[in-house]
Amino acid sequence: MRESAIGVAIWGAGWVASGHIKAFVANPGCRVVAVGSLREESCRALLAPYSLDAAIYTDFERLLDDPGVDAVAICTPNQLHAAETVKAAGAGKHLLIEKPVALSLEELRAAQEAVRASGVTTVAGFVVRWTPLIQSLKQIVAQDDLGRLFMANAAYWSYRANRPDFQRARATAGSPWLVGGAHAIDAIRYVSGLEVAEVSAFAAPVGAEYGYEYDCAHAATVRWNNGAVGTFTTTIVGHTPYQFDLDLVGTRGAARNKRLYLDRLPSEAEFFELPVAGQDSSDVVQHAFGGEIDHFIDCIRTGRRSHVDLDEAAIDHEICFALDQSARDHRPVSLPLA
User: Fold this and answer.
1) CA–CA separation, 42 vs 158, rounded Å?
2) Which uninterrupted H or E stretch holds 317?
3) pLDDT tens across 7-55, in order?
4) Distance between the two ends of the chain, CA-based, in angstroms?
5) Do 271 and 155 share a structural domain?
6) Sheet strands (E) in 193-270
């Protein structure tokens, strides 16, 4: 077990980085030794709320050359994550990689190969796993309170008028699944313990009027590996508040987000509500970065493999790629991908 504080660098100084730095500063097992971005003023703005003696870099390779940097949090635009993962793994740096970790299967495989060759610790940025509701639902399923699951649905709806330009272009965003819907896919997999066997997806022709180069609303039917069925839906446009919904139906109970109905707790026909916080906002200030980053630092210190390392995140991304392929080719797609 490592005793000294782990030196952390944050590469990318935008919105999500503000959640990362706050959590890193709060963790006594690490210290933020560097921040980096193409714009120095962005780094200074990120550091402004904190009294940190941190180096500032505008070149990624120079940041990786810093001997005080043990781990890097990649918080850059989507299209850069995979290539930066390859470089950082090659430099022997442990990695917290914001999602999406890649925009194509080829990028994903290259990143996985680089990480395996280096042996560094990785955690992918599926921060929803640390939300109290998700932790509670996972325990409920693990206790077999719902019985055999035969339906599992997930939905992510999140319209933001001020999304950055890279999320509006197909080449740099990927799809609405990769922009946000992957969070719901990861959460339902994590909670249920099921894996997707086949998807059949459709895209609604909406997005151009909001300034996007791709269709921004998708829906899919899902066949799970135990024979269960379900649906995935996502939209990043439209007149709707933020919605993050998980539905599980089993032979002994059902869950709809915080609402539970269990046969071991007889009632008339009413759900009861869990008194825990859910994933109720798209604002990074509300996300459970503290739990995620505490887990990341602990994995580095103990050498323990994360339950959401790059190989685990690759499964979520393959599902996203399969959903996009199904909508594009108008046919079902089986998983895992070849």
Assistant:
1) 26
2) helix 310-329
3) 999 999 999 999 999 999 999 999 999 999 999 999 999 999 999 999 9
4) 38
5) yes
6) 196-204, 217-224, 229-235, 243-250, 253-256, 259-262
Residue 117, phi then psi, degrees to nearest 5: -65, -35
Q: How many CA atoms lie within 13 A of 75 on its CB side?
A: 26
Whether residue 176 lies inside any domain: the answer is yes
Percent above pLDDT 70 for the chain: 98
Least confident of 29-38, 48-57, 186-195, 278-287: 278-287
CA 68, CA 172: separation in Å to the nearest integer? 31
- 181 and 298 inside one domain: no
Same domain flag for 25 and 93: yes
Reported in sequence order, the residue ranges of the chain that DSSP labels E, i.e. its strands, are 6-11, 30-36, 55-57, 71-74, 94-97, 122-124, 149-157, 196-204, 217-224, 229-235, 243-250, 253-256, 259-262, 272-273, 333-334
Average pLDDT over residues 174-180: 97
Looking up residue 119, the CATH number of its domain turns out to be: 3.40.50.720
Q: What is the pLDDT of residue 264?
A: 83
Residues in the chain, how many? 338
Domain range holding 91?
6-127+289-307
Residue 115 lies in a domain: yes
183 lies in the same domain as 326: yes
48 shares its domain with 193: no
Residue 1 pLDDT more than 60? no
145 and 236 in one domain? yes
Supply the pLDDT for residue 282.
Answer: 86
45-48: long-range pairs with CB below 8 Å, 24+ = 45/13, 46/10, 46/13, 46/17, 46/18, 46/21, 47/21
Q: Are residues 38 and 145 in the same domain?
A: no
Among 227, 271, 278, residue whose Cα is nearest residue 253: 271
Q: Are residues 268 and 303 in the same domain?
A: no
Average pLDDT of the residues of the chain: 96
